[in-house]
Amino acid sequence: MAQHLQSTTTLHNGVHMPWFGLGVFKVEEGQELIEAVKHAIKHGYRSIDTAAIYGNEAGVGQAIAEALQENGLKREELFITSKVWNADLGYEETLAAFDTTMNKLGLDVLDLYLIHWPKAGKYKGAWRAMEELYAAGRILAIGVSNFQIHHLQDLMQDAQVKPMVNQVEYHPRLTQEELKAFCEQHGIQLEAWSPLMQGELLDNPLLTEIASSKGKSVAQIILRWDLQNGVVTIPKSTKAQRIIENADLFDFELSTEEMQRISSLNGNVRVGPDPDHFDF
């Protein structure tokens, strides 16, 4: 369980991944992005999550370079994630896409590389390329995103290396209990994207009640629920105060009853695409 902002979980290959990080989905290239990433690192974040399709890897790379210099940090102290997009799935395509990502980020080694979506007939070739990059030491950990149980089973039939992470939509209205249990059984770390359901949960009466009783925000309650469930979480924000507030999760705890009440909000409701019907 995470004890502080820089606490890590150990992936099945021994790599240490921070429990908490900053996501930059839908944050456009530019100074706002750069300042958000730098602000997060300055205030103790050590994990930054981007993707090729976000179109902001160059800005993230610039922010990382500046933050390392300004804060006296070593590159090894940060954990950087990116993802290969659907159009680049396939063995040769993924190798080329990875080089493009690394050039934009300005990095020699990537901490975690994910297949963004389980595009039918394409992800096994991509995984073979990622296994090769992992064996060569260019990536420290490899994983997937938005994979359901049947996708994971299919991938692992032929994989030489088991995925270390599965990043999925995860929040109190979509608890994905069966998927979570499967990942735990196979040593695959679950990671939450859209943990705040893109803001749709912030007015929820139950969460508001619990937040009030703890003297915390609803966002903090949800993010704490993630961590106590053993799920890595990467909320997005570009606002300095919100970046700090989102990470203020380590001076309180949710009781077993509170955890269960929050989980009872599950309705299998998605704000993002259904992985079984997403073919971009």
Automatic annotation (TrEMBL):
Matches recorded under PROSITE patterns: ALDOKETO_REDUCTASE_1, ALDOKETO_REDUCTASE_3
Residue stretches making up the NADP-dependent oxidoreductase domain: 31-266
Listed InterPro entries: AKR (IPR020471), AKR5G (IPR044500), Aldo/ket_reductase_CS (IPR018170), NAD(P)_OxRdtase_dom_sf (IPR036812), NADP_OxRdtase_dom (IPR023210)
Protein name, as recorded: Aldo/keto reductase
